[in-house]
Amino acid sequence: MKSKTQVHNGNVHSIDAVAGVGAGSSSSPSPPPSPPPRRHSGVSRCRRRPRQAKSSSQKTHSFRTLAAGIIGRRGVRYLFLLPLLYISGILMCVGPFYALIRQPPLPGSRYRSHEVFQKLWQDIESDNSSAIELSSVWKYKRKLREQKPCPNLTALHQEHFVSPGLNGFLIVEANGGLNQQRSAICNAVAVAGLLNAILVIPHFEFHNVWKDPSEFGDIYDEDHFISTLDGYVKVVKELPEALMERHNYNVSNITNIRVQAWAPVSYYLGAVYPVLQKEGVIRITPFSNRLAMSVPPHIQFLRCLTNYKALRFTSSISTLATKLVNRMIEKSSRTDGKYIAVHLRFEEDIVAFSFCIYDGGEAEKMEMDSVRQKGWRGKFRRKDHIIRPSFNRVDGKCPLTPLEVGMMLHGMGFDNNTSIYLGSGKIYHGERYLVPLIKMFPNLHTKESLATSDELAPFLGYSSQLAALDYTVCLNSEVFVTTQGGNFPHFLMGHRRFLYDGHAKTINPDKRKLVVLLDDLDTSWRTFKEQMEDMLSESDRKGIMVPRVRKINRKTSIYMYPLPECRCLQQFLVNQINHNLDDPNNYSSRNLNR
């Protein structure tokens, strides 16, 4: 008889096996087995539970348990050995070739000017080649194109400025240093003319870096400013009493319009003009660079008029500035009264802001970090602010040291008889960086050496007033040298173009080329001189260049390139200038008549 099977919960059981039937039992029928004896209900029966199929989560848990067991019991040592073996392999493979694959420093990325100077000093000292004459430095002449005849200023006034100031009052706040404030003032006059508003004498913002509390009247002659602009833009020293009373004698209660940088004329006419008409008085703060360079010709004329005629330094500044100019002329007798003026920006805050590394080591780094934290708080600690000092130097963004300026000028052909005026604030570690410059140019002067302590005392601590003294002496020099960008050289170069028939007469060094030369310890004095002479010639060529008007932007502004827009004012001033050179207020008249 065939054995029967049962399928129970997926498990196959042989009934014969369960019954204990042997393989060799006969085939004859056998009596059915007797039923098993009934067990007592109080005794629990131990039945084997059938196996169940594992779910996926149970399998994953089992796998993790198994892996943990392997690591815990057998593989824990591999957990530590594998990373060590990996790192060791990299070092063994890469180590011998590291010196070959490492990139050398970029040419010009290191400050090694002192080393180059020490190497070349004997050649510099023994160089007896003929020196360049200051009177023959500038060889290029500006070619005058045919220009439209200048309109009569009376006709210009009648056409555009018949009834100035009918629409209300304009208040602006100028910030920054001397020439950033100057830019804001010129733009404020232009906006007032555009809106036909009365301009209130601009207020100067106090800045934590410059710490100069000077106001407009401390630097510029207010009465001359008002009278020069009379008939074009009406200017007052303060708001009328009625308007102040309406705003509770608090200027901050007056509607302030936040204007975007380099705003076009259409924005002022469409968005600002309606508010001015409605309110009768508006404020625009901040006001730095809040007017586009491209404006109608009669508004551009207001910028010219303000910059070159209306803005005159106070009598106290002009008087001392004229004395400094005359003393520089006296000390330049060997060069026919002509001198070089250098605008040196190697001051503590400028060096700190540039993030350039010189030769001061760890002490310099700690000092600069302290200056940056004090002046700009956490601005340079942001994660998105990437600092690369070596790239800054290669890109020509590092301030030149006095030593580098001296080597450059010597290489261009100026000898130790040349008189140099150094326009600067307190030079960073002057005892270390100034000595080589004095060694090359002993006839070196500053406002501190030219003026008596009593003459200079009223201006100490007022950075803008001190800058005004430097501005005047630099303006009257035969050669002006700029060593770092900024508003000071831009305005000064433009002013010199205005005075010198379109030529800036400015040495603007190619610092990208210069730092490469001063990083090469193998360079010869002859090679260095040839490069510097080419650099001087390039500055001469660029001094007469005028960008196309359609490409004028914030970097090629009317303040840096005043011609041809300011040509008509230039001709007017030449015809009207007072030729009395002793008048301190006409300190620049000698230049207009050269």
Automatic annotation (TrEMBL):
<dbReference type="InterPro" id="IPR024709">
    <property type="entry name" value="FucosylTrfase_pln"/>
</dbReference>
<protein>
    <recommendedName>
        <fullName>O-fucosyltransferase family protein</fullName>
    </recommendedName>
</protein>
<keyword id="KW-1133">Transmembrane helix</keyword>
<comment type="similarity">
    <text>Belongs to the glycosyltransferase GT106 family.</text>
</comment>
<feature type="compositionally biased region" description="Polar residues">
    <location>
        <begin position="1"/>
        <end position="12"/>
    </location>
</feature>
<feature type="transmembrane region" description="Helical">
    <location>
        <begin position="78"/>
        <end position="101"/>
    </location>
</feature>
<keyword id="KW-0294">Fucose metabolism</keyword>
<keyword id="KW-0812">Transmembrane</keyword>
<dbReference type="Pfam" id="PF10250">
    <property type="entry name" value="O-FucT"/>
</dbReference>
<keyword id="KW-0808">Transferase</keyword>
<keyword id="KW-0328">Glycosyltransferase</keyword>
<keyword id="KW-0472">Membrane</keyword>
<dbReference type="GO" id="GO:0006004">
    <property type="term" value="P:fucose metabolic process"/>
</dbReference>
<feature type="region of interest" description="Disordered">
    <location>
        <begin position="1"/>
        <end position="60"/>
    </location>
</feature>
<keyword id="KW-0119">Carbohydrate metabolism</keyword>
<dbReference type="InterPro" id="IPR019378">
    <property type="entry name" value="GDP-Fuc_O-FucTrfase"/>
</dbReference>
<dbReference type="GO" id="GO:0016757">
    <property type="term" value="F:glycosyltransferase activity"/>
</dbReference>
<feature type="compositionally biased region" description="Basic residues">
    <location>
        <begin position="37"/>
        <end position="52"/>
    </location>
</feature>
